[in-house]
Amino acid sequence: MKLYRFTSIWIALALCAQQDVIRTSTNEVVVDVVVRDKKGKLVPGLTTQDFTILEDGTPQTVTSVKEIKGSLTAGAEAKTGGNQNGPADVTKRVQLISLVFDRLALDSRRLARQAANDLIKADLAPNVYIAVFASDLHLKIVQPFTNDRALLKLAIEKVAGSSAMTNYSDVNSAIKLAIDSSNGSEGAAAAAAGGSRGSGVDGGGMAQESMNRMMNDMLEFAETSLQEQQGRSSIFSLWGIVKEQTRLPGRKTVLFFTEGLQVPTSLVGQFHSMISSANRANVSVYPIDARGLSTAEDSAAAAALLNASLAVSQRQYRTVENTAVTRVEANQFDRAMDSIRANPQVNLQELAESTGGFLIANMNDFRKPIQRLTEDLGSYYEVIYRTQNSSLDGSFRAISTRLSRNDLTIQSRNGYYALPSLKGANVLPYEVPLLNALNATPIPRGLDFRAAVLLGRPNKDGYQSSIVFEMPMKDMTFRALDNEASYRTHVSFLALVKDAQGQVVGKISRDLPVNQPKEKLEGFRSGRVIFARTLFLPPGRYTIESAAADLEAKKYAARKTSLIVPASASNSLAMSGISLVRRLDDAPAAPDTEDPFIVGKQRVVPTLQDHVPAGGKNALSFFFTLYPSASGVKTTATIEFLAEEKSLGVFPVELPQPQANGSIPYIATIPLAGFKPGLYEVRVRALQDQQRALQTFFVTMD
Q1: CA-CA distance, 345 to 353, in Å (whole number)?
Q2: Cα(84)–Cα(148) distance, rounded to whole angstroms?
Q3: Which CATH superfamily is domain 578-702 in?
Q4: Cβ distance 512 to 400 under 8 Å?
Q5: Are 543 and 475 a contacting pair, CB within 8 Å?
Q6: What CATH number has the domain spanning 1-17+420-570?
Q7: How remote is the C-alpha of 515 from its chain's centroid?
Q8: For residues 575 and 627, is the Cβ–Cβ distance under 8 A?
Q9: pLDDT at residue 414 above 90?
Q10: pLDDT at residue 68, rounded to an integer
Q11: Alpha-carbon distance values, 425 to 240, 497, 501, 514, 697 (Å)
Q12: What whole-number distance in Å separates Cα of residue 383 and Cα of residue 405?
């Protein structure tokens, strides 16, 4: 079983992962609509009778149409009174504009800087506020919302003149294409000679092809990780900006200066959820491709990915059955799907059209589209309709806006996801059935899974902890595909940590559609899905609510457990929670100092199982971390086994030296040759001077 790790999340198998508008208690939906004639001029004077709204093809009742007139510029008022930088007047319609600068190369920064300065050249109306953000590995606020042009110009210069933030998604495209072409040529030559791979016709050629495949896998893994990292940082930066803008009424806008948006298959759900939050907050996104006219490589990138996927298919066809399947081959379907979204301008187009904006691209002079954009923001129609479908089932509701006149064009958002609210967390569409399972009576219990919180390093305010989810694949339903050449399963899960007030303070969820070749099926079935994510918990009472779904069989299960986090003290001896060890991985060259599962040069993969095989050559491995006080006094520890409340012995532990951060992680491995089947209690005690720490867990030996 191969294990991959993304940030602080483990996938214990080779696995692959929404739109809302403002909704009131009366099921009303607000849609901003920009209407222009054939010459591109804004059309005033439309009324309720001019608009027809369809949701999922069904006509809806339009309750209100309000024409918002005006401009982003202050006109004569600004010329006489000047800019008035100060608190926004919430009694007036506030216009918020967020300028978001993604990773940009030198030429792109120049064009982006020019476009942003064109926007702020005119005097801003008193209730137009602009903020400047930078999106790199994380979101940076360069200038909070203001209508002071001097501050804005300074912020634009700072972010657009900083060190290059460029997009490296296609860095290795030529190399990968050459390698795949080389593999294809070698295969064709072997076929022409009447040979095949594995038949021994050319040992040197086979060695070369193996090396090519190795290099190809290296590049594929690096490229996939880079695309996911860049896409994730861009999507979550935008998400963070738009979701909080529900606090103020009125239309809000994001200008996204970028060189293209990467949305791998694994991030499609998050991408759509970000769009959903934008529509809920009434935010329109106007992406600006700052590369100017130099965008021919976009389609080439998509073609390269698709060609690489086809090359993998051909290579699989030539490979004998008992040859190991590489990670690239296992992800062939994902690569083909990624090729569809490999043109980053396509993703920007979807982002714009879904939120009621438009894409500015393929030009070196942004003055005209910026002028059109300011007109859009200043003059539009606010159309409100009452939806006939009040079910918050997570489904997508397509919105179609029509006019009584055929000579006009419409610009508006195209729909939303009907999502319930969840205190303290966003809801993704695939999570809705899982939330329904948690609220069902009785709670369904058709699947085997576990979720738990492991307390970690304490400080004066609480514990740096981990929420862990684990589910075995042995009972999952697998559907045969391609005449049983491959099999499909589809798993989703959700775990929430809620405080005493019902607020979500920690969440982990995934939607995992998986395809596996027939020869790998049994190994896959014996695996387990294991995810972990860190969270901080202050002392108090919590509830862990978790749910899982086998979507091929339409089976659900849910659990609710309690958790009490005790008072913490950072200046005394403490011990983490204890978990059994699933396996050990090599730690990365530069490990995350906050990763609680790093032990020297290894990383522990925890498991929530509480059953182990007894006797023979079996062993019990478990993991804990000691956090000594700063007194410098040596820490000691013991392990005690009990059966039926009778002690079977106390074993001293030889602890290693503390790590650089002062912690002492420890993996205990106990041979089970002398243990009989039954339930055992394991107690771990630590002592430092007069300070003591104790943790206990139970394990069943079968």
Answers
A1: 12
A2: 8
A3: Immunoglobulins (2.60.40.10)
A4: no
A5: no
A6: 2.60.40.10
A7: 21
A8: yes
A9: no
A10: 83
A11: 12, 11, 14, 26, 31
A12: 17
249-263, 268-282, 494-508, 532-546: lowest mean pLDDT where?
268-282
Would you list the domain boundaries of the chain? Answer: 1-17+420-570, 19-69+379-418, 85-358, 578-702
Question: What does the angle CA 143 – CA 146 – CA 151 come to, to the nearest 5 degrees?
Answer: 60
The H or E element containing residue 481 is strand 479-481
Sign of CA dihedral 156, 287, 102, 232: positive
Side chain identity, residue 196: S
CA trace torsion 53, 353, 30, 257 (10° rounding): -170
The pLDDT-based confidence of 262 (bands split at 50, 70, 90) is confident
CATH 2.60.40, applies to 19-69+379-418: yes
Between CA 157 and CA 164, with CA 159 as vertex, the angle to 5 degrees is 115
664, containing H or E segment:
strand 664-671
Secondary structure letter of residue 590 according to DSSP: S
**169: helix, strand or coil:** coil
Residue in 558, 606, 525, 578 with CA at minimum distance from that of residue 448 = 558
Q: What is the pLDDT of residue 364?
A: 87
Residue 570 predicted with pLDDT over 90: no
Give pTM, 2 decimals: 0.65
Domain 85-358 classified CATH 3.40.50? Answer: yes
Strand partners, 681: 642, 698
What whole-number distance in Å separates Cα of residue 152 and Cα of residue 158? 10
Give the CA count within 13 Å in the CB-facing half-sphere of 521.
17
Q: Is the pLDDT confidence value at 238 over 80?
A: yes
Give the whole-angstrom CA distance, residue 552 versus residue 512. Answer: 12
Residue 128, judged by CB atoms within 10 A of its CB (0-12, 13-18, 19+), counts as buried
Strand 479-481 to 450-459 pairing = unpaired
Please determine whether the domains at 1-17+420-570 and 85-358 fall in the same fold group of CATH.
no
Q: In this predicted model, what pLDDT tens digit does every residue of 645-670 receive, in sequence order? A: 899 999 999 999 888 888 899 999 99
Q: How many CB atoms lie within 10 A of CB 674?
A: 8
Q: Concatenated DSSP letters for 403-447?
A: ES-TT-EEE---EEE-----TTS---GGGHHHHHHHH-SSPPB-S
Sequence-ordered list of residues with C-beta below 8 angstroms from that of 635, at least 6 positions apart, any chain: 573, 626, 628, 655, 664, 686, 687, 688
Tell me which residue of 70, 64, 69, 41 sits closest to 51, measured CA to CA. 64
As a whole number of angstroms, the distance between CA 146 and CA 127 comes to 10
